[in-house]
Each structure stands twice: as C-alpha cells, then as structure tokens.
Amino acid sequence: MQLDYKTLGVKIGLEIHQQIDSHKLFCSCPSSVRDDEPDVIVTRKLRASAGETGQIDVAAEYEMKKDRHFVYQAYNDSTCSVELDEEPIHNLNEDALMVVLQAAKVMGANAVDSIQVMRKTVVDGSNTAGFQRTALVALNGHIETSSGKISIPTICIEEESAKIVDSSSGFVVYNLSRLGIAFIEIATGPEIKSPEEVKDVAEHIGMVLRSTGRVKRGLGTIRQDLNISIEGGARVEIKGAQELKLLQKLAEVEVIRQKNLVEVASELKKRKAEVSEKIVDITALLKDSSSEIIKEAIGAGSTIIATRLKGFSGLIRKELVPDTRLGKEFSAYARIAAGVGGAIHSDELPKHGITEREVAEIKEKLGCREEDAFIFVAAEREKAESAIQAIIGRAAQAIVGVPGEVRKANPDGTTSFLRPMPGSARMYPETDINAITPDTSGIELPELITDKAEKYEKLGLSKVLARQMSKSEEAELFDALVQRFKTIEPSFMAETMLTTAKEIRTRYKLDVEIAVEDLESVFGSMVSGRISRDAVFEVFVEKARGKSLKDALEKYRLLSDDELEGEVKSVIAANKALPLPVLIGKAMEKLRGRAEGKKIVELVRMLGGR
Predict the structure, then answer these.
(1) What whole-number distance in Å separates Cα of residue 60 and Cα of residue 66?
(2) Using an 8 Å Cβ cutoff, are 180 and 154 in contact?
(3) What does the pLDDT look like over 286-343, one tens digit per residue?
(4) pTM for this one?
(5) What is the rounded distance in angstroms from the CA atom of residue 185 to the CA atom of residue 392?
(6) Which of 290, 314, 546, 581 has its CA 20 to 30 A from that of 298?
(7) Listed residue (555, 570, 564, 553) closest to 596, CA to CA
C-alpha cells in the first residue's frame, strides 16, 4: 500500500537501549547473561505503590491486577543480593556513566548539573524491586543524518531488566543474570517523518555508540522502541525491536493500523456509536447449544458474559493490518486483563457451531438493533466480567480513534497489545543513593566509525573493506599493525585479518584462531623477506591443520635462488614427458608460497628447454 506519510501527518520518535560493556550498574557483578541451571530459586509477588504524585501509575495497576507470582533464577557467582532486592544498591558504576557522557558529548548534548537516580514503577516482575532505576544524564543533543537534523532531547543511564524464561497466566519465570546490566537510553524527538527514515536514524545512533568501543554487541544487547502517531491518532509505543531491519516494517504496519483505526472511528461517530457498562449473563441462553466451544466452557463451570456494542455491526471484523482485525484487538485486551482465551463477537457469527437462531436470541436478550454488535467471553465469572470490562474500555477507545498504548514488536513486523501507556505517576526519587555531579572535563571524543572508514579508504582499502574494518573489533589492532609494518599494503593486512579465517572455514571446513601474536609473526616474516605475500594464507591453513605457526612459517620459507633452481630441476626430472603447461602446474603446486609465481614459470621454461 502506497501511503502519503506527509498528508497523514506521521510523527515517529525512536528510543535506543544499548547495553554498556562494564560490570552492573549498582553492584560489581559481571554483566554476562546466562541460561544454565541456576543456583538459587526465589518466588515473589509484587504490588504497585504510589509515585511522587501520590497516585498509582495506570500501567503498573494494570499489571498488578493480573495477580501473577514471579519465579527468579539467580547464580552464586554472577548475581547478588542487590538483584534480589535484599540489599541497598551500591554506588552508581562510574565507568558506565563515563561511556554515557562520552556518547552524549558526541551528540552535542549538555550534561545535567546533578544526576538524580529515579525509581520507575514496573510491576510486571522484570525488576524484583517493583521498579526500574533510571537517571537523566544529558539534554538537548542532536545528530545529523541523511534524513536531516534529528533532536536528542534526553540521554539516560538505566539498569537492564531481568530476562524472561517462561510464563503463563498465573506466573512468570525470570533469570536475574541480566538484571542490573548498565545501558544507555537515547531518545529522539518526533522529527522522523517516514518509516524509511527510521532505519537511517537508528543506524546513525548505533554507529555513534559503537564508536565509543564500550558497548556490547550481538543479539539481545540492543533494543529499539518506536513512538508513532498520525494526524487524528495518538502516540503508540512499540517496544522490543532487536533487529535493525525490522524497524521500517514495524513503522509501516503501525501507520496503516492507525490509519484504519481513524477510519473506523469516523464511521462509528457517523453511526452515533456507544458502549455501555451494562453486561449480561447469557449462560442460560446457551446452555443447550450444540457448539463444542460453548459446551466445553459450560461443562467446565464457565460463565458467559456479553455486552452490546451500539453501532459496531460489521466494523469488528474490519481488517486493520493483514491477519489483524478490530475484534482481535478486543480479544487481546481481554486476554491480557483477565487471562482468558479470547472473545467471540457477532461479526464472525454464525460460526464455531453457534447457530443463527442463537445469534438472534442473544441480540434480542441484549437489545441489539440492526447496526449493533455484541461480544461475549466464557470463563469463571470474575475473569469473564474483568475481560468484558476490558473489551468495553477498548470499544470506547475505538469510537475516539487510536488508543495510546504500549505494544510489543512481533518478528513479522506486526504488533500486539501489551499494556496502557504509563504516565508520570510511576516516577519517584531513589532514596538509597546520593545525587551525582558529573565531571565532563576529561572526556575525549571518540573517532566515529564513519570517519574511520573514510580514513581507511584513503589508506587504499575498498569502500566495502573500509566499512567492514571500521565496524570491526579488529580496528584498533589494524591501526597498530599499519603503523608497525609500513611496507605492507594496509588493504592486504585488512583482507588477511577479516577474511582469512572465514575463507579457511569455507574451503577446508577447518577452524583457526588467529591471535595477535600470529599476525605480528606473519607480517614480520613478510617484512624481513622470510615469506612471500602468497604464503600468508597457506601459513594459516597449516595452522588450522594443527601445525605450530613456527613450523608453518618454516614450511613456506622463501627459497634462495639456488634452492629454487634445484627444486625446479627436481620437478622437471620427475615429469619429463608432460607438456609445458602441466609441468608449470606441477611446479607451482609444489612450490606455492615459497617463491614468486612469475619466477617459477620463467625457471620451468628455461630449464625445461621448451
């Protein structure tokens, strides 16, 4: 679908959460995420408390109503009582803070005068304390991308949440090895105007963070959240996108979803649609139904609770995005609020064994007219009532338009409802740590990866190779080797460092670890004239086959002129009947890497007399 994003008034903001390569934020435990058998198991329940405003945050209260218990897995050597919330936090990790201040300086942000750690109420179990600690570090930065100037209003340092292991409607299992890892949160302003720009901005921020050399790399170390709205809609936060390539798709799909929700709201307003708090028990009405779903529910002791949705007929089946209709969003609210399996609505009936006669009876019971719809939930009474109330709330939002909410990023680019949008009531100061006055006087700007790539191109590396090396963890070593071995082409050294191990694995199905000392020895042997450039790859092949580097270098030691002549004569004597091209091939095969190819060919022709 081709969309005019400007006409739609699309506004997108991006939040980048990147783990910092240091020990944890409020203790000295290592920041290694584990999945092996835990040493300690702890079970807890959490409740929401009032924030600084004296009110309980709506999102926290929503989570608390799920009435789940939480199981925490801990380790003797990589988690401590800080993670278990049985000991006050230690001083904030100054090493991690310096990384955040350095990134802030690159983006032109101003460090705050005083860093005050705050508690952000979170009672989904991902933090044992019932809150996440966060601190504002810098304000009013910006970046320049191909999309233009993008503001960076805030840069924060936060503690990572626990890793979810398993869940059901009644419990969630978390692993505490991830809890407390320090990460930087960078929030952009809403200047991003299209899904295409999202990827560009995220790549630029990621490049800045990697340029510090102090952030973790790999899947799970970075998460990206999107805040999206369109004209007539509302801000929706999409959480948890781990892959950069998914960001554009998420934005595209969300814009379409909001556009369709605005259109649904427009139609509902034309119909003067309404929702009512009135709910009706229709269990008796369906007690003799032949529907297997209904029979199974009633047999299990469920109550069937229904409500009328005035003016909603035909719109609950409205497709918002592929495979997602308005009815599915209603069901998601019911599922998350009450732990029920879902809901059934009149737009999809007769179906599931529910007959036209039964549909007509339900409509009559609820007082439905032609443009009205109904929806019902089957569960134990308390859950059914809670679920239907959640649906009523979501249906009321459908009349207004796009609900402001938090949604989860799915791997296919779609999203699903998580919880209502949190408010300011969830924040209050951390009482176990003093405020920090940041010192930025000694902070140096890192060399940006983009600048480094340009420098490598000037050294003779191709654009692709320069980009690869600039992003590589080998960049610092490469810089040192270029300075040390000035007679070797930098592009050859870069190729050797980045591609040799991969090529050996591809060609010979062998793994080889190339240490710093190996590179120094090999390049040093080239400079001294002990081995040729052609021998470098073969030396590492020999190492992959189990030989010591010393023996591999000796095997491919350059031959003297006399030694080379003797070897060529030996090849000719053993293969007198072969034609010249084959004879040259035999010599090249035997002497590869031990003499220049051109020299070998000339000797074979001269000594072979052909």
Answers:
(1) 10
(2) no
(3) 999 999 999 999 999 999 999 999 999 999 999 999 989 999 999 999 998 888 999 9
(4) 0.84
(5) 35
(6) 314
(7) 564
